[in-house]
Amino acid sequence: MTDAPSLIQSIISCKCPKCRKGDLFVGNNPSNPKQLFEMNKSCPTCSQTFEPEPGFYFGAMFISYAFNTTLFIAVWVLYSNLTEDFSILTLLAIMGISAVVFLPLFFRWSRAIWISIFVPFEKKSQSSGSKT
After folding, report:
1. Which of the residues 17, 72, 79, 85 has an alpha carbon 20 to 30 A from that of 63?
2. Residues 17, 120: contact at Cβ < 8 Å?
3. Other C-beta atoms lying within 10 Å of the C-beta of residue 41
4. Mean pLDDT across the chain, nearest whole number?
5. Is 84 strand, coil or helix?
């Protein structure tokens, strides 16, 4: 069974870490902002719960922090290299806008990474549907 996506592919596409088939999030449509942050309770494919305990995703904030720090450094380096008239207010505005634009993506990826740390991939779960 080699049709399962790799770990990186499943994180980028926000798939279940156990079977790498089911969606972690309810909707993938950016035109419906209400569903951008709504997670499924469990995997529709293998029934893996996506919230093993209350407050489980607290650690995902640290991953999101790393994403945002990387984004801010990249924006700062690009801006400072592309302009001679450096303005701190312009830099802060660009950083703020870029943080808002990337918020849904970073939110989803940080949660996908966090749950993938704790839930191992099971090759048999994708065919049987309820292996424990």
Report:
1. 79
2. yes
3. 10
4. 88
5. coil
Cα–Cα dist 20/69, whole Å: 28
Measure the CA–CA gap between 103 and 28, rounded to whole angstroms. 14
Separation between Cα atoms, residue 2 and residue 56, nearest integer Å: 30
> What is the model's pTM?
0.83
Q: In a 3-state reduction of DSSP, which class is residue 30?
A: coil
Residues 84-99 as b/e (b if ≥16 CB within 10 A, e otherwise) read eeeeeeebeebbeeee
- 70-103 pLDDT, tens per residue? 999 999 999 999 988 889 999 999 999 999 999 9
| 66, HSE (Cβ side, Cα atoms, 13 Å) | 9
